[in-house]
Amino acid sequence: MARNEWPLFEVFIRPKNGLSHKHAGSLHAADARMALENARDVYARRGEGVSLWVVPSAAITASEPADKETFFDPADDKVYRHPTFYDIPPEVKNI
Amino acid sequence: MYTQGLDVGSDSDRTTAPTGPEERFQARVDAEEKIEPRDWMPDGYRRTLIRQISQHAHSEIVGMLPEGNWITRAPTLRRKVALLAKVQDEGGHGLYLYSAAETLGASRGDLVADLLNGKAKYSSIFNYPTLTWADIGAIGWLVDGAAIMNQVPLCRCSYGPYARAMVRICREESFHQRQGYEIMLALSRGSDAQKRMAQDALDRWWWPSLMMFGPSDGQSAHSAQSMRWKIKRFSNDELRQRFVDATVPQAEFLGLTVPDPDLAFDEATGHYRFGAIDWSEFERVLKGDGPCNRERLEARRKAWDDGAWVREAALAHAKKKDARAQAAAA
Questions:
Q1: b/e string for B202-224 if b means 16 or more Cβ within 10 A?
Q2: Which of A32, A38, A75, B231 has CA 20 to 30 A from A8's CA?
Q3: How close are the terminal C-alpha atoms of chain A, in Å?
């Protein structure tokens, strides 16, 4: 079979105003406009959203799952980034 | 189920001797952690999922054909819009699933090629013909009912993209089953001829629906490994029993007779006992000798071939527009 596939796009849907776009899945389309129309038909047949993004899958740079620990552990030992790190007497209110 | 071909025959899906990464992987699965596309996974897990998800996708796509047969002849506009929406959903379900399979590194072109050249399987149920309007009711009620029974546990499958696709699919399937049952209800409360039509549809679709769950647990080649990997949550026989238990009272409500002389409610277990399934028919249909196997594949090949110029033209147009945009920017 001829390998002239339409490129892959990732689809993101904003369920309603006030919420962020969320990944819904992917689809193939010849160009971005077709991807948007196909995304409406494939991922939003029942009022799933008020806004759609389509992004060429090839344009996404992702972190490596194998590096998860080294990549994310700088955050693990910084307890002082959390509000509970700081001692405030209980009689102090509204803080 | 839609992936029942997995359970037949035995090719080499043995995992290699447990090593470090395999044990860590199994520990993650055992802890109910989801596996995501770029995570390390055993080759057998990846292969099993690609086969299962693509068979499932093919089943959705081929499943559009028997029902599509009745769109132009639906008895009312209400029935027609519902059937159109259902068939469109099935196309959508096929696409969610292909996209889940692609996250495992499979190419869409290869998956489609495997369907068209007969290498990949799809559910045996779609190789039966839809002879009357009542068949559309029976498919929604029984075939989608059986599919839901199987698919609800797949929403908790260990592989994230498959589980998420199944959540969407299950949300949409319940309309399918209800529209089917409503058709059966209208016919079974109609004229004598309509009642006979409903009974005839139940007679023809009952056993093939039970076969959708795949071979008995003892005969099922890949079940144990799939359970260990938490791809599968319940055995074929367990799900089949649940389906029978749920469906028999629905048939009684319709005033129709399930075509099984051995069917009886067992007070002791609280389950229905049912007769032996003709597995030779199942094997025959799965291997390509069902009433409609050739017709279904021909229809898919024709759709693929007839669409070739559209796919090529759209790509050529996109390339031309890109080149123009780049020239303008330069």
A1: bebbbbbbbbbbbbeeeebbbbe
A2: B231
A3: 66
By a Cβ cutoff of 8 Å, what residues of chain A touch chain B? 1, 3-6, 8, 25-28, 30-31, 34, 41-43, 45-46, 62, 64-66
pLDDT digits 0-9 by tens, A46-60: 989 999 999 999 999
Residue ranges of chain B with per-residue pLDDT less than 70: 1-19, 221
Q: Which residues pair with A26 in a beta bridge?
A: A10
Closest chain B residue to A32 measured between Cα atoms? Answer: B318
Of A6, A25, A64, the CB nearest to B311: A6
Closest by CA to B227, choosing from B170, B278, B175, B154, is: B154
Give the number of C-alpha atoms closer than 13 A to the C-alpha of residue B232, restricted to the C-beta side. 29
Query: Rounded to whole angstroms, how far apart are CA atoms B194 and B251?
Result: 15
Query: Is the CB of residue B89 less than 8 Å from the CB of residue B144?
Result: no
pLDDT given for residue B11 in this prediction:
43
Residue B318 near residue A28, CB atoms below 8 Å: no
Amino acid in position B270:
G
Closest-CA distance of chain B to residue A82, Å: 26
Contact B315, A35 (CB under 8 A): no
Is the confidence at residue A1, as pLDDT, over 70?
no
Q: What pLDDT score was predicted for residue A3?
A: 58
Tokens 């990464």 correspond to B21
Q: Which of B148, B129, B150, B151 is nearest to B140 (CA)?
A: B148
Is residue B216 a contact partner of residue B1, using CB atoms and an 8 Å limit? no
Tell me the pTM: 0.90
Q: Quick one: pLDDT at residue B10? A: 43
